[in-house]
Amino acid sequence: MTGPRKVAVVGVALSDCGRVDEATPYALHAQAARRALADAGLGREVVDGFASAGLGTLAPVEVAEYLGLRPAWADSTSVGGSTWEVMAAHAADAIAAGHANAVLLVYGSTARADIRAGRRTGNLSFGARGPLQFEVPYGHTLIAKYAMAARRHMIEHGTTIEQLAEVAVQARANAALNPEAMFRTPITVDEVLSGPMIADPFTKLHCCIRSDGGAAVLLAAEEYVRDCRTAPVWVLGTGECLSHATMSEWEDFTVSPAAVSGRLAFRRAGVTPSDVDFAEIYDAFTYMTLVTLEDLGFCAKGEGGAFVEKGRLRVAGGELPVNTDGGGLSAQHPGMRGLFLLVEAVRQLRGEAGERQVRRAGGGLPELGVASGTGGWFCSSGTVVLGRG
Prior knowledge:
InterPro entries: Thiolase (IPR002155), Thiolase-like (IPR016039), Thiolase_C_2 (IPR055140). Pfam families: Thiolase_C_1. This is Acetyl-CoA acetyltransferase. It is a single chain. The chain is 32% helix and 17% strand. By secondary structure, the chain is α/β, with parallel strands linked by helices. β2, α2 and β3 form a beta-alpha-beta unit. The longest helix has 16 residues. The mean pLDDT is 95.
């Protein structure tokens, strides 16, 4: 091998998503994996690397066994919603170095169905062990941490609740173009603001939906591309960053770790934010979209509110379509949603997004897209720059 190999995404797929009452999480993993391999036109015998998190006592060993895989390279990194962008970065590095040839990333969850069936309850927190023990006595719920960060941004930069609501409105407008989205009925800013309060300043529609579903992404070395039935989408640059576990150690609530992961990914890809045609951003809450747009460099710090209020995030007529499938606010959110961002980005770059397809000026397909995942309460970030060329 004379140098690092180029790495491409050659297969992507979703399992059944939305309301899936009869499947197990293992079954959703398997369904997504089979569909991604079929999308690539490759058999599972080519898979020598595997990455999964969030299921089983020995993740990803149990899931690999369920899928009938015996990988020689594995990753079980678990950093919340950004897990899959971080895993994609690790997989791309391993393939480029020759440590693996084809790596399958898989996720599946029945978060919604489990609650409906009484098998689990909603997560109010991540527990009270370790450093978190010093916050739990003060009543910090999971959502309250996001809400507190949003309020800080509002105080420091004048961001308004109407501007945050616009993120939800535009996500729903994109979801209306996606037949696979769980919620497609248009909403207004007034409807977002008048909903039941969940954690000030977030009302219900500021918060992600809860769904079932799974996703899979297959990355492979450049020599496998000629055997695939789909056009390759190349991994151009990646970045990752860990920030904090406790809110007391977060230096600035208005800056997310995407400020680091994004800078690294763009630099390694040799591009700038202005070159990007669309962005898939983790959106468990509206504030996550707004602050990540700032930290990735699509607008200056403090200008996110003004940036989103002008309809820029819409597929139809937006300057920078964001969360083109409807995102976690409207399409699906079964838990750690980062893998869904990669699936949607690849579909957009391959021109397979149907009515929600992003087009460049003149009608051409997009050339560059970015997927940026966030984990925990802005505890981690992973960013991946993808391109068709």
